[in-house]
Structure formats: structure tokens, C-alpha cells
Amino acid sequence: MSPRDSAETRAAQVAAPAEAARVRKPLFRKYFIALFAAVVIPLLANGASEAWFGYRDHRALLDQRLKLESAAAASKIQDFLDGIRDQMQWAVQLPWTEGGDERHRFDALRVLRQVPAIVDLALVDGSGIERLKISRVGRDVIGSGTNRADDPAVAGARKSRVWHGPVRLNRGSEPYMTLAVAGNRAAVGVAIAEINLKLIWDVISAIRVGETGAAFVVDRNGRLVAHPNISLVLRGADEETTARLKALQTVTQAQGGGTITATNIEGRTVLPAMTPIAGADWMVFAEQPAAEAYAPIRAALWRTGILVLVGAMFAALLAFALARRMSGPIRVIESGAARIGAGQFDHRIRIATGDELERLAQRMNDMAKELAVSQERSERIGRLKRFLSPQVAELVESAGKEDLLGAQKADVVVVFCDLRGFTAFSAKAEPEEIMKLLAEYYEALGAIIMRYAATLTHFSGDGLMVLLNAPVPCPDDPAMRGVRMAEDMQAAVQALIAEWKKRGYGLGFGIGLAKGIATVGRIGYEGRHDYTAVGRVANLASRLCSAAEDKQILVDANLASAVTGTVALTQVGTRELKGFGESVAVSAVSAKAAAE
Amino acid sequence: MARPRARRGFIAMLDRRTALLGAAALLALSPGAARAANKTFRLAIVHPSHPVSGMTEAGIAQYRAFFRELRRLGYAEGRNLLVDRWSAEGQAGRYLELARAVLAQSPDVILAGGTGPVTALQASTRTTPIVGIMSDPVAAGLAFSLARPGGNVTGVAIDAGEAFHGKRLELLLDIAPAAKRVAYLLAADRSDLGVPISVLDFAKHRGVALFSVRIEGVVPLPAYENAFAVMRQERADALFVGTAPTHLTHRATIVALANAARIPTSYQWRDFVGLGGLMSYAPSLPDLYSRCASQVDRILKGANPAEMPILQPEKFELAVNVKTAKSLGLAVPEAILARADEVIE
What we know:
The complex is a heterodimer of chains A (596) and B (345). Chain A has 596 residues and is an alpha+beta fold. Chain A is 50% helix and 22% strand. In chain A, helix 9 runs parallel beside helix 10 (356-385). Chain B is of the alpha/beta class and 345 residues long. Chain B folds into two domains: 34-159 and 285-315, Rossmann fold (3-Layer(aba) Sandwich), CATH 3.40.50; 163-283 and 317-344, Response regulator (Rossmann fold), CATH 3.40.50.2300. The longest helix of chain B is centred in the first third of the chain and has 21 residues, at 9-29. Chain B starts with 8 loop residues before the first helix and ends with a strand. At the A-B interface, helix 3, helix 6 and helix 9 of A face helix 1, helix 6 and helix 14 of B.
């Protein structure tokens, strides 16, 4: 599996839970709510205030108009009664004299001709005696001599010129009223007329309040006197209509003449207004069905409502679009960050909003790029560190000098070392024991190799090969460095051997060093590379190592010459070494170091 | 709320609902108005004696008033009104037969003149609304009371109380103060119940003799001639023609006989006076018929006749033929002239 593949798998693993775990308060929702509210709240406030003030204005207008309507209706009813009164005045102009009845009779007949509403008319003289009575349907009576001085009509008219009697029903159906009019002096007497109030119907039915509203008249006892629906008047008072009229009167009076909503005599909901008629002590109502009266305000409410609704829908669309525009790129950045975070460094966040978000995405892309570079580098360093000391690996990496690892001829110092008696030991010992021992051994050696910045080319079992001056040249003399390193190695391992001896293992340690030109470079295959040195010098070092006894450090002539004077060497003479035709001059580093 | 633009979704739904609600409210508020606009109603007019040709918008005065009022209320014959006209042509015995024929046409409402035809119609149907022009529907058992008739009959009551007939005698005696023997003309049929009590009372009050003469026989002219012969025998010096519809049918005969006999006569309807009769006093028929038209309208709009009060007359018409008075050698008193609504000279 390549690193690329594994990175993508991890990205997928990271992305999946991110999608699954919903955000508690998504940004989209916040933006949407904020934007929507910003438009809708003023819209609603405006709509509500408009509706409220519209309602109030309309209501005030309605109150005013109904009041006017009732006043107009009252004045028409008043005119009807005044017309009758004025005509009756004709009958009370002449004073009564003996035998003067004929003049009065003609006056009375004329009044009857002029006023169809008068059913009969009686004339009473100054002393309260009825002198004549003219009727449309009944008998005419002349000079009956009946004393009507105590008649409330006569008394009332004498007191206040005009007297209105109570409304009563003729033959249980038609409303009649007595109207008495006195002349300007006592001697002319009083005219008493029976009025058929059904004739007000012509007046009242001609009054229209709004489209379907009406006016009607109620007397002091709450009896219906006139109504456009004449049946209601002629049917007389039943309990239901009386109760409704009473309720209507009560609420209207409680309101002080102002407009309220009430149930009318026919059971409909209306807005009534009332104007009293002083003389007759009647009340004239104007009423308009509430449905009709409120129709304009209802239409206005509908209009406002629909406008608000349309506005809200528009606001929702706008908020949706804006919230999407704002939260969309953030989501793209989020998922991009998740992918990059999961190691997919080649992922690029693509946003072209032209704003800070685009810049943020650009920054993240740059970061991903940097991360990719740095990951690649750390991977490379990791690879180098397998055979180079960390310092060298960093150096090689940071300098970008990986070509140092390429194949070349170099003057190197090759160091071989291994344990003596390891094969015998490993045959006997337990695997855990072997591995523990090897771990101690390599730990000790590894620290030294690293300290000397040497290149570990390979190790197998107890043996290992170390290179100096390649791939990076040593800052000082590599030969000298090699010897010093060998001495440290010998010292460290000898310390371990002493330890091991206590545990009963008889082991030794030998080192061989050679210096010379070798071919160095990487060998291996894709994914598994080693750095090594090939050539006579490597073989020589290996053989020297094999030849070395415990505690011994053998060096070849090249190396010996390089360190002569600095390191104490002992000539051990020439040796016949396997693979080398001629005998080789070998020196041993003086045991003084080993003894330390 | 008519919206020209087509809308989608719930606003359109809202509109449709508003429209439906509005329509429903309209229908609920004025079922009659909605129906009157697009339905043709069937009206039957029935009268004991008027010729059917006179029952039109251009016919007899009361029908003119009736149709004028109907037109004002939005009904026009031929457009939304189908009128069937029926007349008993003065034959009281035909009322039941006529009633069956009228109802066979299943009219929406019937306008019926006279207590007799209304009684016959009500005997035949208890559902079809009848607007009647009746003397006294309560006394005739056609209605429970004037205020609440309680059945399928409403309309107008001509008799403005019992006293009214006495008033007619008073006016007759005002014109003919010398009269001492007054004849009361009764119809042959049994629907004419006799002399009204108020007439008898007033005769007694004024100290005049009053006797009734009933028409005997079927053939009009000889029957009326016989009646006048009886009057001559009885030395009648004034005549009171009763309220039976038959008299109206034969008004020309009666007027001619009365004038020939030189008897001062009081008739009920103005029709007689136009033909040369001396005087008439009665509620204004055009006024009553135009009231009937509004009742017909309310019934067609769904009102229940049982709940529609029967109207009483409020306008009375006194007609005097001064020419006839002069030929009879009578001086019409000033008081009568002052009272008269119509004076024919």
C-alpha cells in the first residue's frame, strides 16, 4: 500500500463521521434566521401597525358616520311628527263660540284631508269639553259634551303645547299614537289626533344605512314603532324581540350613544347608533350589519396580510440564497480542511467568492502544499535515517543533496565488527535471551555510531558494517574518527561482555577497519534501499574483523599510515587473508584503549 | 376581491376560499335576492269578478299599482315573472273549481281578491302562499290573528274594523239627510252574510229604518230589476249596496237601475261612481294592492306567510259624483266635499 492510498483512506474515514455528526447549530440556520428576521420583523411590525391604525381610523369613522345616520333618521322621524303637529295647529286657531262648531268642523276635515296618518281628530274647547270628533272609519260626533279636562292628552297639551301619547296596537297589530296639540291661548282648546304610525314606514323604509343597514324607532317602553321590516312592527311584541330590543337599548345607552357591536332585533350582528327624539320620547336607531361595516377594514387586512406573506416569502428566498452563499464556501473549506487534515495534501479547496473566504481557502491550499512538502521531506529523512545518523540525514535532506547518495568513488573508512562465540551462544541460549543480549549490544553500538555521525550500512545477527566519510565527508580526519569510534565501541562492548560473563556467556568482540577508495551508493529496490560501500576496502575491513581477536582492533596499512603518530599502533605483521592474493600488512590499535 | 393576475399555490387557494366564503355569505344573507336574479316565478291572480284582461300593468287601477310596485321590486312579467290570471266572472259557485285550476298550475304565490276566493283557495291548499285582499280574515277563519296569521294566507284586511260600514251609512245620510228608509242590497250567494252590525247600529242611532233586499235569481238583469221592484214596494229612499263581489260585476246594471229609480245610493268602490253612481267610500285599492306587491316580493324571497302580519288599510277614498247628486235633486254638503278625495262634476 502506497502512502498516497493510505492517506486517502484516512481522509475518507475522517470525512465520514464529520458528515454523520450534524453540527448542533449550523451556520446556515443562523444566517438564515438572522437575515429572515431582519426583513420580516420590520415587515410584520409595519403590517401590524398599519392594520391597527387602519382599524382604529375606520372604527372612528364608522362611529361618526353611524351617529350621523341615526341623527339624520331621527330628524326625518321628527319631521314626520312635526308635520302632523303643524297641520293640527290649523284646528286650534279659532276660539270656541256658541254655534261656531261648523268652522271648526271644516278645519278638522281639512286637517284630515291633509294628513293621511290621522285616523280621527277630536277638538276640545277651552274648558275641556269635547266639541266635535271627526273620524275616517268611525262615527262623526258633534257636540257630545264629554268632559275631557282630565284626559292626560288634554292636560299634557295644555301644559306643554304638544303631548305625545304612548304607542298602542290597533286590533293587536298596527301601532297607533295619540297626539295632542294646544293652541296659543286657552280659549282655542286642544286638538287630539289618533295617528296611524304605520305611515312612518314610508319614511323609515326609505332610509338606508350603508348598503344593507337600516333605521328603526323604539318608543319609551321598548316597543318597536317603526322598522323597514314592517312585519316586526305589526307582529307586536313577542318575548324574543322585546328582549333583543331591551338589550340593544341597554348597550347603546351604556355606551353613551357611541357605537358598539350588538345583536339586532332580527338576530344579526350590527353596529347600532342611537339618537333620542325628545318630544315623543322615542329612540331612533341606525344600524349597519357588522359584516358590511367591517368589509373595508377586512379587505385592508387581507391586503396587508397577503403583502406581508409575499414579503415574508421573498425574505425567505433572499435569506436562503444569502445564507447559502455564506455558508456554502465555509462548508467547502470545512470538508477541504477535513481532507487535508486526513493527509490528502494534494486536495485543493476551490472557492471563487472574491472575499475573505476565498483568501482563507487560498491560505489553506498553501498550507496543504507546505504540508505535502514537509511530509515528503520527513518521509525522505525517515528513509535516510535508516543508514545515516540523524544529523547527517537532516543535513542531506535540508541541503537537498540527495544526490550525495548516488553512486560514486569515495575515500572511505569501513568499519566491521562482530561478537566472538555468538554462533555457539545462539545455538544454546533461549530466543528471548538472544534478543535481549542483541538489544543491549546494538543499543550500545547505535549510540556510538550516532555520536560519530557514521553511516550504518547494514547489520546481520551480531555483525555490522559502518562507513565513515560517505556519503557526507567527515569534518575532521575520517581515519582518526574511525579509530576513535572503534575504540569507543570496543570499550562499550567490553563493558557489556563483562556483564554477560556474569550471566555465564562467554563472548568476545572484534573490530576491523580499512581505509581506501570504494564505490558507494544506494542499493536495493523500490521501498527498501540501503547505502553501502563496495570494493576492496570493504572486503578488507570484513576480513580484518574476522581476523581480530577479542578486544582487538585491526587496521589496514592505509589507515595505519593515516593515523601514525596520533594513535599508538602495534604492527602485527602481515596476514594471509581470504580473497586477497598477497599478504596484507595489519596493525592493531594498541590495547591501551581497550584496557581503559 | 377580483384579482386579474393568476396566482399559484396557497394564495390562489386563499382567493378561491375567500370567493367561496363570500358567495356563501351572500347566499346566506339574501337567498331571495340570489334567486330573484335568475329564477322565473309563477304568480296567479284570482278575482271574483274582474275580467282577466284588466289584471295587467295597463289595466284596472289597483293592478296598475300592483305591477308598478312589483317592477320597482325587480319583477317584470315575461322576464322573471309568469302570471296566470283567473276570474270567477261574478259566479260565486265557481270558486272551488277555480281554486283547483289555479293550483294545478302550481304557482309560487297567489294574489287573490275577495274573501270567497281566498277561502276556496285555502280549502284546497295549506302550503301555497296566498296574498289575499279580504274583508275580515280573522272573522272568516282564514287567519289566526292579523299580527300572526299562522297559515298560508296573508295580505290585507279591507274592513278597517266593524265601524267602517256604519261610516259609509253616515256619509250617505249626510248627502241624503231626508232619507228615512234605507235598503241594503245583499247578493244571492251565501257568502254574503247579511247586514253588518255597525250599519244596523248607525241606522238605529240616526232613527232610520233599514231593511235588506237580496238578489234572487241567476240571470243578472232580471234579478236586479226584481230587487229594485222590491225597494220600490218598500218605499226605500236610500240604497246601501253591500260588499258582495257580485255587485261589482254588475255595477253598470245597478248604477243604471238606482239612477233610474232616483234613489241616493252608497257604493263600496269608486268603479261605481265612475259609471254615474252617487258616492263610494272604501280603502284605497291601489294602495292596498301595492302593499300586496311587497308582500308577494317578501314571500318570493322566502318569508313565511304565517309570520307576515295582515295589513290594515290606512288610506280611504271618498268619491262623490256631483252630477248624479244634482240629477237626484241633492245638494252635496260642504263637509262632504271637504272630505272627498274625488269629486266628479
